[in-house]
């Protein structure tokens, strides 16, 4: 019996948003009478934290703390159209729409504040704490609370804005395939270290070191959540998951979580996450979509590590103990 | 997690108030107290339960369906078949002009995969619906089936889906989406080594802890509220509107709080039939996939087969890459033609290669229809590409990480689909991985940059 | 027809009720309630028994009697059942172990039934209302058994004589690729004088490895001496193929894991 | 369909319902009583989302018939916070960013509570074992394990 160790690397990129574009998302933003901001969307939170991120994006753009923002999604009677949450598009598409809507609302807010302070709107800035200040003369200020009250009850202004983000659809040229599939790409590189039991084909992933370039980590703790979970799913995809274990034979498909295999809490690799930020030109605050790509590089990195360990190539997913054992036996047979 | 702000420091802006801050999630207090409301937490008085009668065969003609015994079963309110569905043949991407309509809401005359929905039973309890479902009699004439993509593409293979007329999706470019860049044959002729390898995957499941489903309530004003865990609200509403031939103004979708998606909840499967059931019975209807349905009936990630042929020079440059990708759509399109096309746009990966030839096929077989999943169109391609990169490096006796630096794309490089590279960061990711994993590479690679002067 | 639960205070009454068609015995619920939830409409009535003896554990004179309703968790916590704890802990996660019973495990089809593998190696006796039989006999006839199992009795092994191994893909809770239980009596110099070995997943229910048992007699537990036993470990097996592993894989790794268990 | 009475204590308050015989505790809690904190992720006993604590023991409410809980003391995540103050486990899950979609969270918290009730200072291995019947598809488990370990430490500090 021998436990053999190996490591492998993989590097990838990943497009943000629907391939070839043509996937719009809208947002509406309005202020309540006391200067809280309602973001209305029809975008879906799958658990990745879309609601929280949209709140932070709106808050940053308007110039208020995040807890002054309320997210109303996803009710089709109130929320304007969003293409949906998929293709790593949520943060990028909806975030841009929220920024646009929030900017428009902010402009009205500054105009009302300017009237109250008897200055030009272009001379005003926000402090991020809920106040509007005159640039260079911060003692001259007004709270957003008071601005909203004034807008509603005194000046008859709607502090609101509309946002729409659309990457125009690209149509591939038939013969050459010339096309514009995406406007920004996230990147990753993973090094995986494994142990392989050469008598049973069992693989233990000892560690994964993941470097992700995601444009901008809008909320670092939430980015970490998604990247850690994605890294786990990538390992799972590499070694465990299949609905049809004997594909293309259709028999023995798993029907429950006992039969559909995923790493358990006792199978976790030591996981390191390093994030780089190269802001994208058209991302909200530079953000790209990290949601999908974070589960990709582990798969080939693990495959390459298995080869490094035992010298057999498993080119079919998942890389099961059975496939490894068969390959080892074939290798031994020469 | 470590945030390395020293990379790209010249283009990063700090000092924002809310962005970049690790604010607590506003939804977490609801999660930890069990108060977050998912669609299935809408428990409505008088709610009916919908259970599907499903095909036990991979491919069969339906001679007849007899629902009379099921309808008499205690607790059963209605049994729906194809004739009850106003626009029964549909395809979800019709909204972005990708046709033809090729799938039935409820099977009409034929089933094309094991598990296909044939009849919908509505009953007062889940148990009554299950019992009645067992009493729906369907007379099948079993037909030959095909499960393997290569077999499906051979002449004489059983035709899976008549709406296509052949076992592949017909793009405007023909039987596959194509990318042609440079002269791949000249590249192979020039190469020191040529390596052709085949990579494959089997379908996998999103396996969200919350299964796909919806709860529909008739509102009394001729409108229907659909509480759903769809990943795409209007996409689902608009498709439901087409299938039900009902103005979209009659439909009200409420969602946005989903127990995991991963791409598994973008198919419009449960909502239209549940709304129809609510309309025809005047009662609230719950249609929630069982775990078994989630595992074997809901769309998986497609199985794929990827053949990569590379020409590489001894100095590490890849001079030609030819990729042929096959996506196993199963019996119906759903999102697979889009996914196969996305693959064509993704190859040859984040590398600058002067001569590229790509064909991606979307193939029909008698399997569970596949669809989107996290990394759709790319994940399996990346597996294939990056294992191939490892093999190429070893073939020419080069360190696998250094080999990637040599070929990595940088700003301004022309991609195979004829867009100049912008915002590249592959090199920096690899540099950081080299450091973090203690996998040293030559100094010249650590000195590289994705930036190019003037780009 | 809906699902109905009938509760009886005696095994006798429950056995009578179980004669009706569509009636199944409710133990911990992990098998039968699941079947009902999944739409098995052949089950229309469930029967349970509240007789306290079914939940009792008694240990005396090196023998244990486990009521059929005793849970896996109860076994793992019982100070005098330490020898059985590894096998009981092999069943499910914590919630399942609080529900799954000794009696139920005897009916669990492969890849489940890890505890029954241990019971088979330990030559346990299965009691029903009107008698007792060896677990091996019970397992062979379980498909047609309609009587409530009341208890399982066994001689508790010396700690060093009993070994149990479960191999799973998912840790710490996955279902079995295989499981092995071995009861070995050895002389002071380590020579095996008797061996009883049971496998899980090598058929649709746990089975004895009789050829390997025989080949171990007179051996010391060294790689060289156990080699003949490993060579015949797969005799008469018909491993299951399921989403966890194929029959081929299970057969291939059975001697590997048996060897590791014997040498551990 | 025959209805049967069932009475139990749910998070400290008495409940009495007439239910159809054969109803699972999960359905009784969710459909009859309105405690939707236990989730139906599989109805097979394989995901743990429906986990509740019955008479001090972690159980799966999807495989437990409500009738068998007559007289029992049942605890769910919905009853964990007292007087609006989060339980240390709930606090730790928040602080560790251990929830994403949240669907597994109530079951995870019940599994963790069952552990800490018996083992106030668990090792990592004991935490892993305690959570092993509960599926999470989003987090990769590590943040949840960390949250449970943190809650245990916080609790033992409070006790000290």
Task: Write a structural description.
The complex is a heterotetramer of chains A (334), B (455), C (264) and D (160). With 334 residues, chain A is an alpha+beta fold. Chain A is built from six helices and twelve strands. The model of chain A has no long low-confidence stretch (mean pLDDT 97). In chain B, strand 13, helix 6 (233-244) and strand 14 (251-254) form a beta-alpha-beta unit. Helix content of chain B is 25%, strand content 23%. Chain B has two domains: 48-142 and 210-296, Aldehyde oxidase/xanthine dehydrogenase, a/b hammerhead (Aldehyde Oxidoreductase, domain 3, Alpha-Beta Complex), CATH 3.90.1170.50; 177-203 and 300-446, Aldehyde Oxidoreductase, domain 4 (2-Layer Sandwich), CATH 3.30.365.10. Chain C is an alpha+beta fold. Chain C has three domains: 4-49, no CATH class; 52-155, Uridine Diphospho-n-acetylenolpyruvylglucosamine Reductase, domain 3; 160-263, 2-Layer Sandwich (Enolase-like, domain 1), CATH 3.30.390.50. In chain C, strands 4-5-8-6-7 form a five-stranded antiparallel beta sheet. A four-stranded antiparallel beta sheet of chain C has the order 9-10-11-12. In chain C, strand 10 (176-186) and strand 11 form a beta hairpin. With 160 residues, chain D is of the alpha+beta class. In chain D, 35% of the residues lie in helices and 17% in strands. Chain D contains five helices and five strands. Chain D has helices at residues 25-33, 88-95, 105-118, 124-130, 142-159, and strands at 3-10, 13-20, 51-54, 57-60, 73-75. Chain D has a five-stranded mixed beta sheet, with helices on both faces. In chain D, strand 1 and strand 2 (13-20) form a beta hairpin. The longest helix of chain D is centred in the last third of the chain and has 18 residues, at 142-159. The radius of gyration of chain D is 16 Å and the shape is globular. The chains are: A alpha+beta (334), B alpha+beta (455), C alpha+beta (264), D alpha+beta (160). At the A-B interface, strand 1, helix 1, strand 9, strand 10 and helix 4 of A face strand 1, strand 10, strand 11, helix 6 and strand 14 of B. Strand 11 of chain A pairs parallel with strand 1 (2-3) of chain B, so a sheet runs across the interface.
CATH topology of the largest domain in chain B: Aldehyde Oxidoreductase, domain 3
What integer value in Å does the Rg of chain B equal?
26 Å
Spatial strand order of the main sheet of chain D: 2-1-5-3-4
Report the helical percentage of chain D.
25-40%
How many structural units, i.e. domains of chain B? 2
Largest sheet of chain D: 5 strands, mixed
Detail the topology: elements first, then pairings.
The complex is a heterotetramer of chains A (334), B (455), C (264) and D (160).
Chain A: E1 3-15, E2 25-31, E3 37-40, H1 50-62, E4 69-72, H2 90-117, E5 124-126, E6 131-134, E7 137-143, H3 144-153, E8 160-165, E9 185-197, E10 203-213, H4 220-239, E11 270-276, H5 298-310, E12 316-317, H6 321-332
Helix pairs in contact in A: 1-2, 2-3, 4-5
Chain B: E1 2-3, H1 28-33, E2 48-54, E3 60-66, H2 68-72, E4 76-80, E5 89-90, E6 103-104, E7 110-111, E8 117-123, H3 126-133, E9 137-142, H4 149-153, E10 177-181, H5 184-190, E11 193-201, E12 213-218, E13 224-228, H6 233-244, E14 251-254, H7 270-281, E15 285-288, H8 291-296, E16 304-312, E17 318-330, H9 336-346, E18 356-364, H10 379-395, H11 400-407, H12 426-436, H13 443-446
Helix pairs in contact in B: 6-7, 10-11
Chain D: E1 3-10, E2 13-20, H1 25-33, E3 51-54, E4 57-60, E5 73-75, H2 88-95, H3 105-118, H4 124-130, H5 142-159
Parallel strand pairs in D: 1-5
Antiparallel strand pairs in D: 1-2, 3-4, 3-5
Helix pairs in contact in D: 2-5
């Amino acid at each position: 019996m021998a436990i053999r160790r190996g490591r492998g690397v993989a590097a990838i990129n990943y497009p943000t948003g629907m391939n070839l574009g043509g996937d719009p998302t809208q947002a509406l933003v309005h202020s309540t009478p006391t200067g809280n901001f309602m973001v209305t969307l029809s975008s879906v939170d799958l658990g990745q934290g879309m609601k929280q991120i949209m709140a932070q994006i709106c808050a940053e753009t308007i110039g208020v703390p995040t807890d002054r923002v309320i997210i109303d999604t996803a009710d089709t009677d109130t929320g304007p159209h969003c293409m949906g949450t998929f293709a790593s598009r949520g943060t990028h598409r909806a975030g841009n729409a929220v920024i646009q809507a929030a900017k428009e609302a902010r402009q009205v807010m500054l105009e009302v504040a300017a009237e109250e302070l008897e200055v030009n709107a272009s001379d005003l800035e926000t402090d991020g704490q809920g106040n509007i200040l005159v640039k260079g003369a911060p003692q001259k200020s007004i709270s957003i609370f008071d601005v909203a009250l004034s807008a509603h009850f005194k000046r008859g202004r709607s502090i609101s804005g509309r946002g729409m983000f659309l990457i125009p659809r690209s149509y591939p040229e038939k013969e050459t395939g010339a096309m514009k599939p995406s406007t920004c790409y996230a990147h990753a590189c993973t090094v995986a270290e494994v142990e392989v039991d050469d008598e049973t084909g069992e693989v233990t992933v000892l560690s994964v070191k993941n470097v992700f370039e995601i444009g901008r980590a809008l909320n670092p703790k939430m980015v970490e959540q998604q990247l850690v979970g994605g890294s786990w799913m990538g390992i799972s995809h590499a070694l465990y998951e299949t609905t049809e274990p004997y594909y293309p034979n259709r028999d023995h498909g798993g029907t429950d979580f006992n039969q559909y295999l995923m790493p358990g809490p006792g199978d976790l690799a030591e996981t390191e996450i390093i994030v780089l930020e190269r802001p994208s030109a058209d991302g909200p605050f530079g953000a790209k979509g990290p949601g999908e790509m974070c589960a990709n590089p582990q798969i080939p990195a693990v495959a390459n590590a298995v080869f490094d360990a035992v010298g057999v190539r498993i080119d079919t997913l998942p890389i099961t103990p059975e496939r490894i054992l068969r390959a080892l036996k074939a290798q031994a047979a020469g | 997690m470590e945030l390395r702000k020293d990379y790209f420091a010249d283009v990063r802006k700090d000092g924002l108030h809310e962005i970049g801050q690790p604010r607590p999630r506003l939804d977490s207090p609801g999660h930890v107290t069990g108060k977050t409301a998912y669609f299935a937490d809408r428990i409505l008085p008088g709610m009916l339960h919908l259970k599907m009668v499903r095909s036990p065969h991979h491919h069969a003609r339906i001679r007849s369906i007899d629902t009379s015994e099921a309808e008499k079963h205690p607790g059963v309110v209605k049994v729906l078949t194809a004739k009850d569905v106003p626009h029964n043949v549909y395809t979800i991407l019709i909204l972005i002009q990708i046709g033809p309509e090729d799938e039935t809401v409820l099977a009409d005359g034929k089933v094309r995969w094991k598990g296909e929905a044939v009849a919908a039973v509505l009953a007062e309890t889940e148990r009554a619906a299950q019992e009645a479902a067992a009493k729906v009699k369907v007379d099948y004439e079993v037909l030959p089936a095909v499960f393997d993509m290569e077999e499906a593409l051979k002449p004489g293979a059983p035709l899976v889906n008549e709406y296509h007329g052949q076992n592949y999706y017909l793009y405007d470019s023909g039987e596959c989406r194509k990318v042609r860049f440079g002269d791949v044959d000249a590249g192979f002729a020039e190469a020191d080594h040529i390596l052709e390898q085949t990579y494959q995957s089997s379908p996998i499941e999103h396996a969200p802890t919350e299964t796909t489903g919806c709860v529909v309530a008739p509102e009394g004003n001729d409108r229907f509220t659909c509480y759903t865990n769809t990943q795409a609200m209007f996409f689902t509403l608009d498709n439901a509107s087409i299938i039900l031939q009902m103005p979209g103004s009659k439909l009200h979708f409420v969602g946005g709080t989903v127990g995991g998606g991963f791409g598994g909840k973008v198919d419009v499967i449960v909502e239209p039939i549940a709304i129809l059931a609510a309309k025809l019975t005047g009662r609230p209807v719950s249609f929630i996939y069982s775990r078994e349905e989630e595992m074997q009936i809901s769309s998986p990630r497609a199985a794929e087969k990827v053949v990569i042929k590379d020409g590489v020079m001894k100095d590490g440059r890849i001079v030609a890459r030819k990729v042929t990708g096959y996506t196993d759509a199963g019996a119906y399109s759903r999102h697979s033609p889009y996914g196969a096309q996305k693959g064509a746009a993704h190859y040859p990966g984040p590398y600058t290669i002067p001569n590229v030839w790509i064909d991606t096929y979307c193939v029909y077989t008698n399997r569970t229809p596949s669809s989107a999943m996290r990394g759709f169109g790319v994940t399996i391609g990346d597996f294939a590409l990056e294992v191939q990169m490892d093999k190429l490096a070893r073939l020419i006796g080069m360190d696998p990480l250094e080999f990637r630096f040599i070929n990595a794309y940088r700003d301004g490089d022309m991609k195979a689909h004829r867009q100049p590279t912008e915002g590249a960061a592959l090199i920096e990711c690899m540099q950081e991985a080299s450091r973090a994993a203690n996998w040293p590479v030559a100094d010249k690679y650590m000195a590289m940059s994705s930036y190019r002067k003037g780009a | 027809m809906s699902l109905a639960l009938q509760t009886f205070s005696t095994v006798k009454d429950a056995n009578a009720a179980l004669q009706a068609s569509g009636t199944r015995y409710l133990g911990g619920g992990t098998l039968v309630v699941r079947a009902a939830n999944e739409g098995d409409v052949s089950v229309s009535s469930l029967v349970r028994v509240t007789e306290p003896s079914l939940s009792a554990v008694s240990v005396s004179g090196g023998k244990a009697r486990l009521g059929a309703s005793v849970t896996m968790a109860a076994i793992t916590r019982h100070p005098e059942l330490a020898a059985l704890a590894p096998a009981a802990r092999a069943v499910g996660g914590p919630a399942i172990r609080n529900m799954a019973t000794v009696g139920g495990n005897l009916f669990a089809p492969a890849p489940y039934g890890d505890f029954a593998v241990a019971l088979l190696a330990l030559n346990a006796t299965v009691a029903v209302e009107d008698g007792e039989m060896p677990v091996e006999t019970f397992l062979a006839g379980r498909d047609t058994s309609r009587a409530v199992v009341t208890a399982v009795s066994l001689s508790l092994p010396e700690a060093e004589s009993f070994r149990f191994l479960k191999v799973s893909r998912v840790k710490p809770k996955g279902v079995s690729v295989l499981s092995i239980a071995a009861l070995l009596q050895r002389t002071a110099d380590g020579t095996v004088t008797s061996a009883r070995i049971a496998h899980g997943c090598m058929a649709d229910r746990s089975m004895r490895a009789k050829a390997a048992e025989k080949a171990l007699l007179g051996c010391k537990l060294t790689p060289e001496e156990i080699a003949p036993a490993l060579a015949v470990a797969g005799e008469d097996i018909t491993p299951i193929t399921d989403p966890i592993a194929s029959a081929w894989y299970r057969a291939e790794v059975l001697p590997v894991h048996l060897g590791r268990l014997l040498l551990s | 369909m025959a209805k049967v009475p069932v009475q139990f204590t749910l998070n400290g308050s008495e409940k009495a319902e007439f239910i159809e015989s054969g109803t699972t505790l999960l359905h009784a809690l969710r459909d009859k009583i309105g405690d939707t904190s236990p989730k139906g992720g599989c109805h097979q006993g394989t995901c743990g989302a429906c986990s509740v604590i019955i008479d001090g023991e972690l159980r799966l409410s999807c495989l437990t018939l409500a009738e068998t809980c007559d007289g029992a003391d049942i605890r769910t995540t919905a009853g964990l916070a007292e007087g609006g103050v989060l339980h240390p486990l709930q606090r730790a899950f928040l602080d560790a960013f251990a929830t994403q979609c949240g669907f597994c969270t109530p079951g995870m918290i019940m599994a963790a509570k069952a552990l800490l009730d018996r083992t106030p200072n668990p090792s990592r291995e004991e935490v892993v074992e305690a959570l092993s019947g509960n599926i999470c598809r989003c987090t990769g488990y590590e943040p949840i394990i960390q949250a449970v370990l943190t809650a245990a430490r916080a609790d033992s500090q409070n006790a000290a």
